[in-house]
Design a protein that fits this description.
Shape: elongated
Structural class: mainly beta
Strand content: over 45%
Distance between the termini: 59 Å
Largest sheet: 5 strands, mixed
Number of helices: 1
Helix content: 10-25%
Amino acid sequence: MSNKITFVFISACLLILNNCSFTSQSRSKSPHFDGSLKFSGEAIENAKIILSLSANDKLCLKGKKFTTTNAQGEFSLKAATEEYTYTPFVNYALDEWTLCAIYNEQTYTLYSNNRYGSGNVTGSIFLECDLALNPVNKPCVVSH
C-alpha cells in the first residue's frame, strides 16, 4: 500500500512541475537606463546608445536595444525583456549587460554589470557621462 501512495505522490508532483514548466512569462534581463552624454561639458546630440546582453561584449557589437541622445544629450532605454518558460526550482540565470555609446565613429563603454538570480532584473540606472574626462575606463558617474 505504501508503494502505491508513493507512486501517486511522485506522479502528482511530476504532473504539477510539468504543467508549471509550460507557463510562458516575460522577464527583464537588464535594468532601465537613463542618462546624459557630454564631451568636455557640451551635450552630445544624436549619439547612438546600445545595450548588449552578451557576455564580454565590451564594445556592444551584439547590441539588442538602441536609442539616440536628444539635443540636451539625454537618453532613456527601457529594460531588455525576454519570453521564457518558468520551471520551479530551476529558473536561475546569469544576466549580463553592457551599455555603450557611439560618438564621432568611436565606441565608448558606459556601464557594464551582471546578476545571477531568478525572476526579473529590477531597478534603474542613471548615468552622467563625459566622454572627454576618462573615455577608456569609466566615463560615467553612476547613480540608482
